[in-house]
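Whiteboard transcription, Tuesday session. T.W. wrote the structure tokens on the left side:
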């Protein structure tokens, strides 16, 4: 049995580019103490997909940022304790390029610990690579970088 059969997607989550991007943000967002719907998360990703935060690497002085290449299970293990503190990620701007059954979505986001927080504690850009198999959309990879003093988000992506 494939992973997609083990975790079937809600057809509404994968019927369009808009739907799968919205589902990707929705599944990781929620109040403190709320367990996330990890089977829903798994259902969005093509088997073998990668989730790649760009992060600092402890013990490395030769680079300030480096991609962390994670599969869906390693990503869940990495973020589950962090998301339990309350986390909402919201898309604030998007650029989409599509040709046939492939798409690239450049999605600017902001993050809050609570929806009532007046300001985001973090912003960044998610790069989604998507594939449509003729029946539904799949996430092949998400690669992102948080905004920093050194790397502010350009106006064209806001």
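and on the right, the sequence the group agreed on:
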């Amino acid at each position: 049995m494939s992973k997609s059969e083990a975790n079937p997607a809600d057809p509404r989550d994968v019927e369009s580019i808009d739907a799968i991007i919205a589902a990707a943000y929705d599944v990781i967002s929620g109040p403190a103490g709320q367990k996330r719907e990890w089977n829903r998360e798994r259902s969005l990703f093509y088997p073998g997909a990668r989730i790649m935060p760009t992060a600092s690497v402890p013990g490395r002085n030769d680079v300030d940022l480096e991609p962390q290449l994670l599969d869906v299970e390693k990503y869940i293990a990495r973020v589950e304790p962090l998301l339990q503190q309350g986390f909402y990620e919201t898309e604030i701007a998007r650029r989409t390029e599509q040709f046939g059954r492939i798409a690239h979505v450049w999605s600017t986001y902001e993050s809050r610990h609570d929806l009532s927080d007046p300001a985001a504690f973090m912003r960044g850009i998610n790069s989604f690579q998507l594939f449509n198999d003729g029946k539904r959309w799949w996430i092949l990879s998400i690669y992102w970088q948080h905004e920093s003093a050194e790397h502010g988000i350009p106006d064209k992506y806001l």
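Someone added at the bottom: The beta strands are 45-55, 66-67, 88-99, 102-112, 122-132, 137-146.
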